[in-house]
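Posting this for the archive.
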Amino acid sequence: MATIDAQDLKQRIGRFRVLIVGRANAGKTTILQKVCNTTDQPEIYNAKGNKIDADIVKSSIKRGNHDITNEMIFKSNPIFVFHDSCGFEAGSEDEFENMKKFISERAHATELQERIHAIWYCIPMDNPCRTFQRSEEKFFLECDTGRVPVVTIFTKFEALRPFAYGEIKNELKGVSSEERSKRIAERVEELFTKTGVCDRLCNPENRARPKTYVRLQNMNKQNTNCDNLLESTTLALDDEELRLCLVLTQQSNLDLCIKCAIT
């Protein structure tokens, strides 16, 4: 791997820019906080770099108005810039078209600083009967993501466990705790497969397809992290400089540095 000066890299790329997509209550904010190692709310800036009052943004969203070009930045890790798709999942056609335009423009932007470098699509697993809804179908069928890697995040994966237990609880009577855990884990995998979500994500008619998948669970607990998401995103990037940029945001993550051959 060629030697690339970290300071020069930051000047040319700026920040690592992520679009996070997903329904309300999919756990998006918690994921961003975990990634940036904070419990604080992000600061929000408009496309011109002017800071916006968070209460004004919330009020605007409640009225059905959302500007996807707004940037969310956490003080704890300002190398990241996040954009939120909030809006189209509720069924607003205008919001969906705005998001499509934003993705197309930012995926093909000439300046690397202006591009989105990764898309995180969150699909919650707390209702296994409704994992892939109309919003997911429209996104993957219609959005031109170019070379930007889409990482599908199955959030709240722990929610499948009670469903699995409920289906086989009569079979678990009298078995050891080890066997019990094994059988529940197996049924969780069966339930996940039964949702058909992976098959639908791999539909050959889809314009956008996930480069990789990540499962996140128990994100509401203090001892959890998003290291697997960061690792998967890093390895999904085709551009070596972008991979290095993302690794620079996680210098304390020794495993990630080693896997990406950074010393």
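The beta strands are 16-22, 43-45, 51-52, 71-73, 80-84, 118-124, 150-155, 210-215. The longest strand covers residues 16-22.
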